[in-house]
Amino acid sequence: MNNEIFEFLYDLERNNNKAWFALNKQRYEEAKKSMERFVSKLILNINSFDADIDIRDASKTFFRIYRDTRFSSNKDPYKTNFGAIIVPENYRRSWDYPGYYLHLQNDNSFISMGIYMPSAPKLKQLRHAVDEDFDLFAAMVKRLESSFGKLSREEEPLKRVPAGFDKNSPAAEYLKLKNFYVFKEFSNEEVLKDDFLERITSLYKQSFELKEWFAKALRED
By the 8 A CB rule, do 96 and 218 touch? Predict the structure, then answer.
């Protein structure tokens, strides 16, 4: 990973306006290309254990750097991170399939695997799968705790088990979640180390069993 990504994002945090961005557009393009080269390698590594990930153009996994400020009190025009979501090509525009996410930001980089902000029907479907197959689900989550910590980092899960589920279910605390993902943070220094690609590939591989379980749960009607 090239430090020009963090250098650009650091400066963007302090100059988040259209005039500065226009003057530094070339720096943005170079940082984006560096990210693209890294994600291309990451995609190949993931494909070695997850055949569903067969993406030809890494740039298509990227989130736009331009913020939608229409309904936000924060009117900064640009995001101060680079994010890439790696999912099968036919699910690229859907939130209803588990994926591998890479987020690079000064002092706030992380990876995650799972499903974030699913539609209401898919969330209900996922909760039913967790409830009905809880022993297997809990075992997979437990195996990942040493690498990722607890499943999800939600600030505001539901206060009660949602309607239609037994409040005394062994899965009760998971049924209150609105998102299902594992998550691991990295310092700038860790991201810039030569072994970062291999390190996150290994972590994604460890999460593959849970990813496949999510995918199966969401495919079943």
Answer: yes
